[in-house]
Prior knowledge:
CATH class of the largest domain: Alpha Beta
Order of helices and strands: HEEEHHHEHEHEHEHEEEHHHEEHEEEH
Largest sheet: 7 strands, mixed
CATH topology of the largest domain: Aspartate Aminotransferase, domain 2
Amino acid sequence: MITSELIKDSQQYLMNTYGRQPLVIVKGRGTRVFDSDGKEYIDFVAGVAVDNLGHCNTRVVVALQKQAQRLMHVSNHYHIEPQIELAKMLVKHSFADKAFFCNSGTEAIEASIKLARRYSREVLKKDRYEIITMRGSFHGRTYGSVSATAQEKFHAGFEPMVAGFRYVPFNDIEAVKQAVNEKTCAILVEPVQGEGGVNIPAPGYLRALREICDKNELLLMLDEVQTGMGRTGKLFAYEHEGVTPDAMALAKGLGSGFPIGALLASNKAAAGLVPGTHGSTFGGNPMACAAGLATLEAILEDNIIIQNVSALGDHFLKGLRALQKKYPFIKDVRGTGLLIGMELGFEGKDIVAACLKEGFLINCTVNTVLRFMPPLIVTEEEIDQLIEALDSIFRKR
């Protein structure tokens, strides 16, 4: 079927919930994807920070093929070997003692919310339920997670939101201190706000939040759905500050494109979740955990992947900041590792479209911030090609 017919059918049969680009991607290898017309693109979106190892990583593909021939699904009424192995590896390489598996980042956040309330009421024996979250955050689209998301545009038309969330400005410790009250049970924060515009807090921000939590018997819960799995140059972003959270939500890059989410937690924080309090039919199924295990093994065994992220990110930032010096409409360039934003003085959708024509997939968030989150295997040459394309596009404005 030709591209125009595919797009027409998409518009006819799918709900209009996405602002899709006018192409149909049918194949991917490494940092490249190919559309239904055979055109090649260098991918700087990576499925929204999902395809950290690139498209169709051989190790992950083989793991899925082998697992599909062995066992695709059973219930969590039974112990599942790949799930046990993945939990063990995640715990071994993080702060956590326990793991809970689900299917997405938003489900991992839902689990975080339930964990925090159960911990306060069942472990601490205190009637506390409010969670402090940050302005500009994005935690998902289910009712609990979107209520935790402190951006009104995601609430519009869906009110009333779930009660029990207090919003404060991001990167403002005094605002957090003032928001804590007798009903507060936890603080939920992204180490870097991705969907909110690639907003990076000042050094010491997470440590200060940790101190507030310790002082008030609160859980510090991190949303590392976008920043985890090597995206920032460490396996997890909290490692940059040497902070130990109580719980952490993961997804996106954990499965290299196969849907999987996880909530990692300390024994203390997880104590309130006992049989019957939470669950998932498909969460932690053999296929998802085989993909997660292969992904994590690849990242940990090939140290050069994470080691290269910081150097590649610095190279990327250097190139974008050179453009900033040339074009006054570039207001800011910021990022960590391979999660980078370029803030423009105008809406960025036309730049996204222009890059598409030049053979590059990029993203725009909060209307004016071009967001770059390529596979971690991207090369300096590919980064330079995008910089050159952006330079040509900006020159025509």
